[in-house]
From TrEMBL:
Pfam families: AAA_16
Database matches in InterPro entries: AAA_16, Hybrid_Histidine_Kinase, P-loop_NTPase
Record's compositionally biased regions (Basic and acidic residues): 273-287
Record's compositionally biased regions (Polar residues): 32-41, 53-65
Source organism (scientific name): Skeletonema marinoi
SUPFAM superfamilies documented for this protein: P-loop containing nucleoside triphosphate hydrolases (SSF52540)
Protein name: AAA ATPase
Acidic residues: bias regions: 263-272, 288-300
Amino acid sequence: MFSTNRQCEPIITESKNVSAWESLILDLSKSTTGEDYTTSDGSEEKGGFHNGRASSSLPLSSRGGNTVDKMGQKIQRLPQLLTNIHHDTKSAKASNDGGEKQTPTALESPSQLKDWMAYHSTTYAPHANHMGRKMDAAYTLKAAQIALSLAKYLGRQFEQEQDMDMESRREDLPSISFEDIVVDNVIVTNVDSEAVLESTSSPSGATKNNGGVNTERRQVLALGMILYELFAQGTPPPTRLQQTLKSSGRILSFGTSLRISEQSEEEEEDDDDHRGASGGDRRKNKDDDDDDMDEADQQEESFVRKQRRRRCDEKGGEESVSKLLKLAGVPISICKLISDMLSNRDDTDIGGLFQCDKSVSCFADVIMDLEQMVDQPKDFLYDTIRLNAKPIVRNKLYCRQAELEQGIGLAGRCAMDASSSVKQEVLMITGLSGSGKSSLVNELITQLKSNGWESLHCKFDQIGRRQPLSTIASAFDSLFSSLLSTENTWGSGGSDTLGVMRTNLLKSFDEESFPILFHLMPNLKRVVSTDGNSTDMQTEYVFDEFAMIPSKIRLHNLFYELLKAISSSWNAPMLLFLDDLHWADSASLELIAFLIDEMGASIADDSAPAVRSTNVFIVCTVRTNEVDNSRDLADFLQQIRSCHNVAFTDMALQDLSPDDVNVMISEALCYSQRLTRSLAGIVHQKTEGNPFFIKEFLNDLTVENLLVYRFSEKTWEWDWEWDEELIESRTISDGVAEILTRKLLRLSKDQLSGIVMLSCFGSEVSLEVLALVKSSSGNSDIMNTLDFLAQARFVERSDEKYCFVHDMILHSAQGAVDENERMIIMKELLQALLPHGYSDDTILFIVVDLISRVGADRVHDSETRLLYAQLHLTAAKKATNTTDFASASTCVKRGISFLPVGHWESNYRLSLGLFNQSALVEWALGNTEQMMRSLDEVFNNANRFEDTLRAAHVKVAYLRMSGNFVSEAFAYGFQVLEQLGESFPAAPDNGIVVQEMLGTKQLVTGSLNESKLRSLPEMTDSTKKEAMAFLEEMLRCSYQIQSIHLPLLACRMVRISLQYGLTKSSCVVSVFSDFSEGYSLAKISMSIAGSDQDKRVLCSMLTITYAMINIWKEPIQAILPQLKDVYNMSLKYGLIDNALSTGMLHTYRALFTGSLLKPCSKEVALYMRNNLERHKRRLMHLCVAPIFNGISCLRGISSKSGAYNVDEFITEKHLAEALRNKETTFCECMLAIKLMCSFIFRRLDEIKPIARQYLELFERQGSASAQFINIYCIFYGGLLSLHYYRESQDQFWMDRAEHAIQKMEVWATESVWNFENKLFLLQAERHYAFGEMDRAAEKYKLAQKSSKKHRFIHEEALACELAASFHVKAGNVKFVAELIDRAVNCYQTWGAEGKVKSLLLSP
């Protein structure tokens, strides 16, 4: 950078017209716009300043301000010099103001700085600034860039010098001069590697007394002198200033060069007459006593004090550095910096005790100022006049770069190609109100959108709770509105996004789903409607209140499918921003949790590449102090953290540090960080570094005239002034709320009433609603008032609505008037909106919210109270229809609070409606106690039986679904049916059941075919319709407890349907002993169910038909994909219980059919996770767990319970406990798995006691047993019984075997495919037990052949193994090896590695 050796290598060829230094300046100009250049090794570096052998842009340990070094990073070697020289075809028009000098036609490269200044001082035409002075903006910016490079280099050299031991420091250091400064095309370079850029310390050693502080101050002073001449375009500092510096012990000579050097000891002695007796560069610490100084020292100190004060006050125009620079056309910011650098002079040994407060004595401050000037020249370098005398806090992030980069990194994981490590990313940003959470996310969205991302913004509100799920639904609706308004230009791909989205939506939803979504998102209908389908599309939505849970899950599934359709239409990642999630209602939290869970569950777990169903990055913001205050939010966060394949990241935003506050204030005032540091310290102390608080606090200071931007007649400059003592003495007890309240109270009466009225609606309100209340609250024109408030930045208008700029303004507006005045405003709003609440759901929920905040205690008119109660009941029903049961519960409770005393007598229908609705929603929420209280209210006060039926439905459903009160539900249901005219025997015997089934069979067979059944009319008898609904519920109870009433209930439903017509419950099938007739009836029932609009009935019918009926007639392998389709359909429509039941049936069928064990294990694991973790179905989980453990046992791996074999994970204790809890299905499932695995692994002695006890038990139950598993209990029980009979000749075992063979013979006549091989194997074992060896050998062959033909690979392996064992006993050894090999191959293909190992190890 500086050189004592002028012979520089001609690295760069010379230019004819422009020097290589000009090339540097052009590059530096690019660096200010963020352009990059490439170093010699090809790596990219940000534009910056570089020294020839070391970086001039290394960051210093700054004591204040921005520590980010934007001028470059650490570079340890000489970068390749630019080889391209910029040419200029025109000769430089060189003349100074007097026209005396001629500009050289070209500059050599490298060139001396004095030549560079001479060239550039005449290249650009000067112009006048607002002060009338001449200023060259281009030269000033380039000079500032050079100055920044010099300051960084000097600072780095100084730090390196401080790190050296005192003994190793060089005593003879070269001096600095303008002639030594050589200009190169990369930067001012130091050609001589031995040169060190600092003023030479005195060899007297006096400097060592104060260490590096004085040394650094002297170097800053020397740099200030160089910068003076640099910015003054070669004009040297005034002679008087040189003489002043000379008196302090330095010789500074000016002319064609500037040389700064320390005097030697001999020169010091010669100069004593001029300086007094203080001597050389000797210093005293500023804490030393004045008594140690002699009279001459004291006189010298007095002189210095006067000089300092005179310089700090800039008195004496000829001596003022700042004024001289201003006259030379230097910008005020540079004038201040150089003046403050030169005001740190140390004229005696006092050590800077009387320095000016603004003096600059360290390189960090110099670099801080120059960086701001170079990076933001418009605000910090050039002379500009502020048109606004208030601080303007910029809309940018301060001290959030690390958090922003972390967010971008998490987003990158969402956008990455699918891999096995992919997870659904969720980022939660927490912080206090005003900490900049939303600003951080908005900046993240801005950066992601520049890379092709899309975004969806949902902002929740504490006040003004609107229609349930409206926050999320309105975000989607706004998206569709934007898409329609911009047509094909919306989206990142530039394609027909609207057309692609329409196609995806039509593929994703059926005609029954659209009405539900249209109800929540009106613009969706415009998106999917075309000329061809707009008239055919159904728009009416009918809610089934007795299928609330399925409706809720179905709605969640619809949102998930909607998110998938949108994501796939964009073909780009999407950020879903959930702003102020702590204000979200419980329904919204449940929906969000479902979406996150589904997105995580959709990612594959295996080693194959993961496939995303959606490409969504979810970001939510939460106030730190609200997490513990909201139980719903705490439960939500716990649920999300436990979701499968979901990566949850917490990001806590801290308050800004004092340095960050200083940067923020400096840029708000366009004032140097060095000068705002003291103010920033006070502001940080008052605001604790809260960004929003800082902004409002600065504005408040200007209003109170404690921070003023004014013109000084003394300096003829505009400047900021503040009184630190007054600012520091201010007390703010209530934080930013106190400041905002004072700000609001300064508004006029109309403006204040307008913003208070706006706060009654919450954070935002639509223009449509405002139009209805425009004359309320004594405000003649609310729209003009809001426009003024928008100009004052209290609110902002966007997308046909007004919203508060910040939530803290909203809360301050609510507290700006007393409670009585606020109540008056809300009542006036109610009167204006009430007439519109009956026809508009949005207005209805606004009205109900206003009523709830007014409160029942403030409403005394009886008619008004009844009106408000009715409105709450209407809102509760609508909230129930959108599955927001929590909001519905709140509406019902508030509605009940408006009822008068004796309301059952005076307002019977309204009371009945409120308490019925209360029982319904509390049941859906699981609030049992409140539900029972509401049910008791209905049962105790109803005038007739028919008025209790709705409550009776809730009670039966609750008892049945609770799991522990099924018998009680069964008994209560029969009581209700008795009153509805449908009686049943309390304990029917088999004769009654058979007689009823035969009678019903005659009705539905013969002449009554499918066409006649389908032509039956719709049922109109209300009593019979209620009876059918209760019969369906009782049918489910009967199946759960394996009651003999099940066929009686089914037959009664058939009879009522044939006599009175069809309902949605008419499609239930009763299977008679004739499988063919049952199979035919099942097809008819599915046909009828398929024509019905109730998917609940259809899914239930399909499950029963495929899993319970078709197995007797169709190949079981063909049933598996059908069951999987029913499982997915049930999930889609929210039928969780039916889906999980179907999934359980599918897993058992898959295992016993011989499906490959490894993929089967993954499916079972998914079902288990759905049962227990996602849907909390314990009984279903218990039924599926034996399957998973059995598969693990067969594969030879440890199960999740740690058990390796069947004896460990299924014990007699488990079976007995299941029976004791009346969990018959679970008990039979465990028994089937235990029998199968024990027989396959030949653990026959361990299973014998259990087989003896439980086989007979389930045999006695007959048709009441669980048919989907009973087949395999009979099959493996029969094989075990024949083995035990061969050993013991116990007739008990032969009876069990004969029962099994008889069953298989009957079943094989219905389906040869499913049962023939099993029958052959049982018959072979029976012949073997009776010693009929030839017949046994033949049956073994048939069993092997049939198993292979019908694709039961596991049973083929079993047949081969049993045949091998038989031939060993028979002495036919020649067949054994082949049979064992076939068995091993089949077991290996099946995936039963555990069995293979045991088989190979067996003798």
